[in-house]
Design a protein that fits this description.
The complex is a heterodimer of chains A (405) and B (188). Chain A has 405 residues and is of the alpha+beta class. Chain A has 13 helices and 19 strands. In chain A, strand 5, helix 9 and strand 6 form a beta-alpha-beta unit. With 188 residues, chain B is of the alpha+beta class. Chain B has a domain of 112 residues. Chain B has a 4-stranded mixed β-sheet with strand order 4-3-5-6. In chain B, strand 3 and strand 4 form a beta hairpin. Classes of the chains: A alpha+beta (405), B alpha+beta (188).
Amino acid sequence: MVVESLRSLMADNLNNRLYEFKELSYKFWKNLGLAYYAEEEMEYITNELLCVSDVEVKKYADACSELYIMYERAAQHVIDNNLWEELGIPENAIEIIRYTWARRKQTPQLYGRFDLAGVIDGTPAKLIEFNADTATVMPETAIIQFEQLKAANIKGSFQYSELVERIGKRFAEIKALHQNREPKILLSGLGHLEDHLNLDIITSAAQKAKFDTQQLDLEHVVFSAEDGIFARVGEDEYIQYDFWFKLIPWEFIAYEEPELMDLLSQIVTKDLAIILNPAYTMIFQSKAIMKILWDLYPNHHLLLKTTFSADDFRNQAHVQKVIFGREGENVKVFGTGANIREENEGDYEDFPSVFQTFVELPKDADEEIYQAGIYFTDKAVSLSYRRRDGLIVDSDSEFIGHYVL
Amino acid sequence: MKLLNSKLNLKEKHVPKFLCGVAVAGIMGLTGCFSDSSTQEYVEEQQVVDYTQGVITSVEETEKDLFKITDETIVPTKEESRIIASYLDGAIDTFTLAEVELVDAEGDDSRRSSGLRRAVTGGILGYYMGRSFSSPTNPGVYKNTAAYNKSNTANTSLRSSAKTTTVRKPATGKSGYGGGKSTKSYGG
């Protein structure tokens, strides 16, 4: 009974769920190698943890498992009906996507992150988007909220967070499926510190599966259509890697580096290397897939109506999102009239858009909204939140850890 | 980053020097090695062995300028490697790998020095210089059967701790993609 009344109290007001603890110092995070997140001007790490019940965690997890099956069916639909243009997938990506999709049992998706609305405000879970290709916020989820809960020392609480362990397990599965290949993986980003910190999490997970690991930014990686993927280690010396993890979006490669896309397509289709996440995750990553999902599962309880036309939302609050946008860039929120309630500019305006029913994210008494991020491997494995005052969760959001009670 | 060691483990490679206890090149320091999308042509393939353990080699000058190995003991790290040389006149010298390399770089090719070199490189230290794992140590450089037999045991330990990496040279390779894109995160 006590638990039940506590739960209804929490659902009534999100502020009742927040547990405040003594703030961890910049020096503390610096010693963990995470100073980047603790910079004062970032205003990113808070001294609050959000309470979630085990029932709610299960709701998130069940939603993600169901959504993943739906995404797979939608991807099959895209491939069967050649809906590449609708998804914004260019010609040069099609062959590698078809090839990796046909072999997804041998090389499954390593991980992704579902962003969901609902649940903690008592409303049903709703899909906001699936970060299928290069999901980040991993150091925060794997380390920062863990350290915060340790510092908060809330009796009887635990955290729904097995990110490194579960991605490590995924690596172990992938290794076992490719026993003919040397368990040696090269991990690359485009050089931003935040991406490096996220790569460290993936590196750690790969090491758990006994992969030899090496990080090297994309610009120094050598690609050969005849021989595969290499890191240069010395004058005329190159180490070949059978596995490559890239925290570089597939659509970035396809659109910005078409020559590299062509090389990667050859490397993968000649079985010269395994690239993670697999190229087919580009289908999941395109927000246009949510239109396909709505076509296949109209009015599904986990989905928001998503179409290609603003006309479908006359007198309805809705959101316009570019199909390959990230971090809330190039998102517009419209009110019930055609009025713009909030708008983010960004670098992705050249992509076409989808239009989606606006859903109110769980909100606290200070009008701050909470978006849940649930990491997924073959099941949901980890949870964390981002909080923002306003309507769009973007790079100005705060990170909010959680505890389960 | 304290989180984990993301820097390259420096690889020891087969350099035709007396001893190469010192690591050769790291990936992380190579910024600027490539011009944009440069094309390079290469053909070969070779094995690079990274020994994690070290060895203490004791040698004795049995005749003038002739040395024989009396003992080889594996130690946990390469840095602990030593050569202990006992001379006919009763003097004893201890070299670290770095010191030996320095001597070599200065071109000491005296008879005594080359005698010492011949002995230690016929033993386990020879593997550090590029002798293939498949070729055994030279029984002729050991003072007696006991020392030679011990070297075989030590050799097994060294082998089990070594990591072998195949270094291939791509026939055609291109790099330099995504340069200048590090100003923002590409995650989400």
